Automatic annotation (TrEMBL):
Membrane-crossing residue ranges in chain numbering: none
Record protein name field: Siderophore-interacting protein
Matching PANTHER family: FERRIC REDUCTASE, NADPH-DEPENDENT (PTHR30157), NADPH-DEPENDENT FERRIC-CHELATE REDUCTASE (PTHR30157:SF0)
Boundaries of every FAD-binding FR-type domain copy: 4-133
Alphabetized InterPro entries for the sequence: FAD-bd_FR_type (IPR017927), FNR_nucleotide-bd (IPR039261), Riboflavin_synthase-like_b-brl (IPR017938), SIP_FAD-bd (IPR013113), SIP_fam (IPR039374), SIP_rossman_dom (IPR007037)
Organism: Kribbella speibonae
Length: 255
């Protein structure tokens, strides 16, 4: 990917999608040049620091430039999935899982919880990884809340005639999002309730009858979910490693 310079954008809208997810729309003329390469496209976000100030790097050597900033000035850096990019309107949608104000609230969640129209952040395209090989005949998507924006974008762009199964773990029915539907798409929402994270969706995976044909598996979310999914599919199901993409978007702290 060509070198880039972080773009300053402005919050144009904030709305709740569910009690625990917010969509923040940012706008700025520079977004017309945002490099979008796939449905699980990541955006690197430069958020205001603890003092509420935002200073962006100004060159395409942004990483060493940012590292050289005094800690009191340096912005907070986080990656989030682009849910929607509209180059003509120069707008970009980012969906955030909200964790309230407790110990589990990270910088991204805390910022989104309090975001208001007119607020500023920086964004930078950070690539995408969803790449089903041309010989794929069916797909399996496994995710938790943190990967729902990517799953939704993947289903938006789903090829006609290819069966896609999505196993999606959330807390309860209030976390379910409207997703694209078609005869080729099977979405199964799995509720963990107050129980342990990852176990319900992994149990559903173990019980799943996989289709015949050539698969492509995309698994993302909490780190253990992604790695355990891959291990099961390779060791118990005989899926070749090169047919599986897996990524830990975040890691649950030990209890």
């Amino acid at each position: 990917m060509p070198k880039q310079i972080p773009m300053m954008v402005t919050v144009a809208g904030v709305r709740r999608l569910t009690p625990r997810m917010a969509r923040v729309t940012v706008a700025g003329d520079e977004l017309r040049g945002f490099q979008y390469v796939g449905p699980d496209q990541l955006a690197r976000l430069f958020l205001p620091n603890a003092s509420g100030e935002l200073t962006l790097p100004v060159t395409d050597s942004w990483w060493p430039e940012m590292c050289a900033m005094p800690e009191a000035v340096r912005p907070v850096l986080r990656n989030y999935t682009v849910r929607r990019l509209d180059p003509e309107a120069a707008e970009l949608d980012l969906d955030f899982v909200l964790h309230g104000s407790g110990e589990h609230a990270g910088p991204g969640s805390s910022w989104a919880e309090n975001a208001q129209v007119g607020d500023k952040i920086g964004v930078l395209s950070d690539g995408a990884d969803y790449q089903p090989p041309p010989d794929t005949t069916w797909q399996l998507l496994i995710a938790d809340e943190s990967a729902l924006p990517a799953v939704a974008a993947i289903l938006d762009q789903a090829p006609t005639g290819q069966h896609i199964i999505a196993l999606l773990e959330v807390t309860d029915e209030t976390d379910e999002l409207p997703l694209p539907t078609s005869p080729d798409i099977t979405v199964r929402w799995i509720h963990r309730g107050t129980g342990p994270r990852n176990k319900p969706v992994l149990a559903a995976l173990h019980e799943l009858d996989l289709p015949e044909g050539t698969p492509y598996i995309w698994a993302a979310g909490e780190s253990t979910l992604a790695t355990t999914t891959r291990r099961h599919l390779v060791k118990q199901r005989g899926i070749p490693k090169d047919r599986i993409y897996f990524c830990g978007y975040w890691r649950e702290a030990p209890s």
